[in-house]
Amino acid sequence: MNSESVKNRILEKCLDLERFSKELSQILPKTVEEYQKSDLVIKSTVERRLQLISDTELDILSLLYKELNLKVVGEDLSLLSMFSNILKNNVIEKIKRLRDMRNKLIHEYKSDLFDEEVFKIATENLDENDTISEIKHIVNSKMVD
């Protein structure tokens, strides 16, 4: 895949991030109490959007990793660590928190405070503009045509 194709793919995935966060904002109740009382359809939809946002962020970072020829292999956190000098710290931390929640959702690690955790992470991810802005900055400044 050439550099221009990778850029286009990353920008398409940024549009997916915008769409998923917009869908999340449309379905997420206004308060944690309302979320706790929500039916299975609402909770499942919120959880699925969080998974999609997290997976899309990691897909983008994987594409950037390959394109920028960064030197690390391994798991998600290794990939994120390679971007610690490229992405703003608040964006990295947000991605890490969401990735942690995604793993809890996938593996069904649920605690007594699970709904509160999901609601908090969902609220943090209603707006992906900071992440998208950082990604577009990398695409425009670090990727060679």
Instruction: Name the beta content range.
Output: under 5%
Structural class: mainly alpha
- What characterizes the major β-sheet? none
CATH architecture: Up-down Bundle
* CATH class category label: Mainly Alpha
Q: Residue ranges: pLDDT <50 for 5 or more in a row?
A: none
Taken together, the total number of domains comes to: 1
Q: At the third CATH level, what is the topology name?
A: Four Helix Bundle (Hemerythrin (Met), subunit A)
Order of helices and strands: HHHHHHH
Helix content: over 70%
Question: What's the N-to-C terminus distance?
Answer: 12 Å
Plain-language structure description:
This protein has 145 residues and is mostly helical. The protein has one domain (3-142): Four Helix Bundle (Hemerythrin (Met), subunit A), CATH 1.20.120. It is built from seven helices and no strands. It has helices spanning 3-27, 32-37, 40-68, 76-82, 89-107, 114-124, 129-142. Helix 1 runs antiparallel to helix 7 (129-142). The two termini are 12 Å apart.
